Amino acid sequence: MAALGLILGLAVVFRLARQQNLDPDKMWNLGGIAIFSGILGAKILMILVDWNHYMQYPGEIFSLGTLQAGGVFSGGLVLALVCCWWYLHHNHIPFLRAADVFAPGVALGHAIGRVGCFAAGCCWGKETNVPWAVTFTNPLANQLVGTPLGVHLHPTQLYEMAVELFNFAVLYWMVKHKKFEGQVVGLYMFLYGIARYFLEFLRDDPGRGTVFGGAMSGTQLIAIGLVIAGGVLWMVRFPLQRQLPAEVPAAR
Q1: Which residues, listed in sequence order, are joined to residue 248 by a DSSP beta bridge?
Q2: What is the extent of the structural domain holding 154?
């Protein structure tokens, strides 16, 4: 599901890139950088928030379990933004215009990836008696990621999938109707940050750490940062830049 999310997300990015007159080849390279740095950042944050465990068992950092783990999405998002900014700056591509194009693809890819989380049993929610609660029964899920078995849980994976599908629909429409550069990615950071902050209250799986003496999770702190950053982009309202025709590779 993660691979399918990447493929469909990139397909959306390439479609929007052509509409925005961005070089498809450079967007392909940017997509590869975003994927690699996103995976790396998610695993780095996963290790950092559970640092004591990995220091006690350092061999697990390079284990198959760590390789297969999805990691913490917020860490992947932050590192991907940093690495993509470097690539765009190096190639003289307007960062905010490219970010606006990538935002819907990221939302769609993340939504599909959360279906994979649900299938694997990871990222589970707290115990609940709501009518739509889910119960995991496969011992393999408990063995691999520690999923509680035989307990009614919030399907937090599906909650986040629904949030991201909504975000995708809104962002995809907004790319064609935006009034300033950064409007789309700013809205994505704002919407996802708010949703993820409150979804954290329903999550019960370990691995995201705590800050301020346990007052909130590390992911909630990152979510607040995303909301602030998105709000700043909407307040500053960078003017739309003149769209130049996409570069066409020379025939060889």
Answers
A1: none
A2: 2-236
The whole model's pTM is what? 0.81
- Residue 127 falls within a domain, yes or no? yes
Residue range 198-212, pLDDT digits in tens: 999 999 988 666 778
- How many domains is the chain built from? 1
**Tens digit of pLDDT for each residue in 142-186?**
998 899 999 999 999 999 999 999 999 999 999 999 999 999 999
Contact of 8 with 109, CB cutoff 8 Å:
yes
> What radius of gyration do the chain's Cα atoms show?
19
DSSP 3-state percent helix, strand, coil across the chain (nearest 5):
65, 5, 30
| CA atoms of 93 and 91, how far apart (whole Å) | 6
Token pair of 75, please? 């860490």
Q: Is residue 241 one of the residues assigned to a domain?
A: no
Rounded distance, CA 103 to CA 2, Å?
Answer: 17
